[in-house]
Write a structure and sequence with these properties.
The chain is α+β, with helices and mostly antiparallel strands and 240 residues long. Helix content is 35%, strand content 22%. The protein is built from 8 helices and 8 strands, in the order βββαββααααββαβαα. A hairpin with a 3-residue loop joins β1 and β2. It is elongated.
């Protein structure tokens, strides 16, 4: 068995004395693991960094085997990410989220979004909004998508301002009024082309974090990415 493709490195772990097992998110093939012999060498160290794009060739005797990777660097992002703390944190969060996906299950939409985030230019606020949108789509790709198209109580599609923490359905301003302490705020930029504010970005992460915790982290007995809270503080800080 053999195939070739382009992918994004999302994780690397040691294996034996000199090898590593790499996790690569590959277009059309999803999150794929492979052994890289000699992967701990200084020659490969710069290539095997999460956030780098690579041309990958996978080989195995049978499809269900781990198989081996050979890699060629296509886009070296790691050095640039290390130089920018906020972008580094964003890349770490996105790569950790991609590792939640089932192995070998294609999720090209998330792969494309991840690469756009890693290459994104713009303000810290815009970067934060992009990662929050990524988390919202991650929930959908994992089968826990929120229904933000209409109000759960009235069916209206207008003036949607909150989300039920139980059902994940949107609630309009009028219907939400009696239950505000129990509801999660729905930032406009998640459902429209509205520009995000710092407060909106913080609220978006509260929203996605609630449902990731409910459906993913607690269910799998996992901790959220360690850097996530620090990243949220940085990107939701009001401008001076």
């Amino acid at each position: 068995m053999q195939w070739d493709g382009e992918g994004l490195i999302v994780g690397v772990r040691r294996h034996g004395e000199s090898s590593v097992i790499a996790e690569v998110m590959v277009e059309g093939r999803g999150r794929h693991l492979g052994l890289i012999r000699g992967g701990r060498s200084s020659k490969l160290a710069a290539t095997l960094q999460p956030g780098n794009s690579v041309q990958v060739s996978w080989r195995a005797r049978l499809e269900e085997h781990l198989g081996t990777f050979t890699l060629e660097l296509l886009e070296a992002r790691a050095a640039g990410l290390i130089a920018d703390r906020v972008k580094l944190y964003a890349s770490q969060i996105v790569c950790e989220h991609l590792r939640l996906l089932p192995e070998r299950d294609p999720h090209d939409r998330l792969l494309g979004l991840a690469i756009r985030i890693l290459d994104q230019e713009g303000s810290v606020l815009e970067l934060g909004a992009s990662v929050a949108r990524f988390e919202l789509i991650l929930l959908d790709e994992l089968g826990f998508g929120l229904d933000l198209s209409s109000c759960a109580a009235t069916g209206t599609t207008r003036d949607l301002t909150h989300v039920s923490p139980k059902s994940g359905r949107a609630v309009s301003r009028a219907a939400a009024e009696p239950y505000l302490p129990r509801l999660l705020r729905l930032p406009p930029f998640l459902i429209s082309s509205a520009d995000p504010t710092a407060e909106d970005v913080g609220a978006a992460f509260t929203l996605t974090g609630h449902f990731l915790d409910m459906h993913v982290w607690l269910a799998r007995q996992l901790e959220p990415p360690a850097i996530r809270e620090t990243f949220i503080e940085l990107v939701s800080k009001p401008a001076d």
